[in-house]
Amino acid sequence: MTERSEVRILETADDIADRRKQVLDKYEQFKHLAKQRREKLEASREFQFFRRDADELETWILEKLQTASDESYRDPVNLQAKLQKHQAFEAEVHAHSKYIEQLDEAGGKMINESHFQSDIVDARLIELHRLWDLLLLKLREKGIKLLQAQKLIQFFRIHEQVMFWIHDKELIAASTDLGVDLEHVEVLRKNFQEFNKDLEAHVGEVNKVNEVAEELVADQHPETETIQDKQKEMNDAWDRLRMLAQVRCEKLDGALEIQTFNRDADETISWINEKDTLLSTDDYGRDLPTVQALQRKHDGLERDLNALEDKVTVLCEEADRLESSHPDSTLDIQSKKDEIANNWENLRSKADDRKVKLDESQKLQRFLTDYRELNVWVVEMRTIITSEELAKDVPGAEALIERHQEHKSEMDAHEDNFKNVADEGQALLDADHPASEDVKEKLVTLAEEKRNLEDLWDERNKKYDQCMDLQLFYRDTEQANTWMAKQETFLQNEDLGDSIDQVEALIKKQENFQKTLNAQEDKIKALDEFATKLIENDHYASPDVEQRRDALLDRRHALIDRSDNRSKLLEDSLRYQKFDRDADEVESWIRDKLKITMDESYKDPTNLQGKRQKQRAFEDEVNANQERLDKVKGSGEDMISDEHYASPEIQRRIEELLNLWAQLLQEMEKKATRLGEADKGLQFARNVDTVDIWLSEIEDNCI
To answer: Whole-prediction pTM value?
Structure first.
């Protein structure tokens, strides 16, 4: 009942309105509170999501920090796999960077929106970033240490390889085997050269170890001291090996010098013994070829000795040098040197003695051989000189004289031979040779044979000169007749040309022919004088010479007359061709102008004034060309008056040109008249048109 009594009964409209307002206000307040509650719940959910993600990321970072902080790089076992695993780990860490970026975005949004947990969100983000940066730092440090561990392992490996190789090569470099002979030493040096090549080939590996060591030290590797110790150990071993190699090389070079000297010394002594055997013979030759062969052989031996002398000198100098550089082998070297010197001096003495004896034998055999050869040559030359017959033509006469001169040249060339034989014989006489009487007799005989041969040559030479003169006259006469026969053939050509170019070409040929004819004048004159000289000298063929000369001169005069006549005809032909050309040009010009005079342009009233001016210019041009026609006409009439061979044709062309010219003047006058009439008609038409216009204007004014 009490509650009922408290219920207010709405009696009026105002009560209802107030009540309604109260209900609506409370409903709005309820909605506002509900919205606030929803927003707080959404914010709480957003915070819970953030905290969950932050906790998960923090847990993951802490877990990875443990992995990044381990010291697995200290164990060199399976280091490459560890590097690959670390690279995968780095990739995984970098892949998770997006999660912290997402948390930064979500947390930043809550802080910007003044979230009720903003302080906590900000603190969590700072902590997460600290852990993330620490993870990245540890990650980088572990990567660096893994790489350093890998480089250290590589350094140890290549260092061990180089050290093993150096220890192996030290055994070779420290060898004391220097060989027992030259071949053995050369084999050892060849092997040592290969050893040096191997040494140079490994320089790069030594440098590589030093480069890796310097790089590790520059990177402040934790094992820097160990690395430097290893590097020093290798460099000391390498320097020691190079020093041993240098010492070994010097010892082998010294052994090579000594063994080379011993071999060269033995070869030289053997060669000296061979030459000594050759110089021990008593054969000095039985004739000149034998003596000369022995001398050539001895000269070759002398050249060999000269070459050997240089070698002996070099060997002695080499022995002195080796004694200084190899004191432990002085006795052996000196012994070889003395042996070489003694054998050499004995050989030189024998060679000089044999050369003197061969020269004495050669002088006597040379004189006897040269005397026999000259005697045989004199007999042969006498036979050759007296066997020649007189020539029947110029080449034969020239060949005969040339051969005779060759005989003279050969005789002159043998002059020194005669002198040499005389000198050789005189030298034998001066030396009181046992065969002096025989030598003296041979010298007298040889001088007489020489004088007789020279007298025979002079006699035959005079006869050959007379034959040459006659054959020259016959040849020149024949050549002149042959030449004139060719020129007569040229003058038989009656072609006078069909055009100016052809006529000018023919005139050019005729002028050249005339020049050739004139050029031969001196030859004909010289031939005439030569024939006259032969006749005056009472040559044995004088009648024949005179007959040939007179016939040649007569033929020459006839040829000149025919040439002059052809030149005259060609000049007339050129005049006619020029007249014909000029007539053709004038005729062509007249016919072209006739075509112009026959056109009917006057029927077209357009531009009649211009056409009349053009007609007047045309008339002036025609009148100006009257002179060309007169010139052609005058040229033709001159030729007719000169009784030109083509006078009828010239007269016909003149009349034809005059008829065409008269026709041109007539047609030109007709055209001028028609143009004048057309102009008058045009003026009349214009006047009619003017009157019509004027009448039309008057009619319009009257209306």
So the answer is: 0.33
